[in-house]
Amino acid sequence: MTTANKITLTRILMIPVFVMMAIYYGRGVQRGHAEEWQRVAAILLFAFAALSDGLDGYIARHYNQRSRLGVILDPIADKGLLLAGIITLSFSNWHYEFPLWFPILVISRDVVIVSGALLLRYLNGEVTVRPSWVGKTATALQMLSIAAAMLQVNRLELPVDPPFSWMDGLVFAAGFFTFVSGIGYVIDGVRQLQAGGHAHA
Questions:
Q1: Contact indicator for 38, 21 with CB cutoff of 8 Å
Q2: Domain range annotation of the chain
Q3: Is 129 helix (H, G, I), strand (E, B) or coil?
């Protein structure tokens, strides 16, 4: 196994540990006896896992360690970390919890993308995934929303009336770009179906 794949696998193994720390902290908040070290541990685990994404990619490219296993593991690690963070912070009783529509939207978009890719593979024999700036922006905003929730940015107040919620604005922006990117991937999938001879896609 290459060094890049080992880093990716470590990132995957860190996900349940991050979830455990986040849940333990949330339970402490609910009881009124939150353990701050658990929140710090969750933040550090998430940050290390997120930073390792760039590290394994750099090693794979720089040292020619690209592999079929890496192609499979890397998106699993990326999506696993994001979904774990969003779902956990939606139900774990932190000081800010994501609104229910946010994890539903993120999960639904990913299900549609994966289902569409499988359909394209079945009907066309191949599928071309074209990353868009909208999709990359959605991913960045999702990651930023998780980080801001763990850092409790919602406790920062501005002298405005009515009070402005940093987190609500950030989550709304993440949700908007997630929705728009999902529509874009669907449109691109339909075009690929039509190009493959399925005129009524």
A1: yes
A2: 1-94, 97-201
A3: coil
Q: Give the three-state DSSP class for 157.
A: coil
What's at 141, amino acid-wise? Answer: L
- Backbone φ and ψ of 30, nearest 5°: -65, -35
How far from the centroid of its chain's Cα atoms is residue 20's Cα? 18
* Confidence at residue 158, expressed as pLDDT on a 0 to 100 scale: 57
Residue with tokens 């609910």: 30
CA 153 – CA 133 distance, rounded (Å): 26
32 pLDDT band (50/70/90 cuts)? confident
pTM metric for this prediction: 0.84
The whole-angstrom distance between residue 43's C-alpha and the CA centroid of its chain comes to: 15
Closest CA to 113 of 172, 55, 199, 192: 192
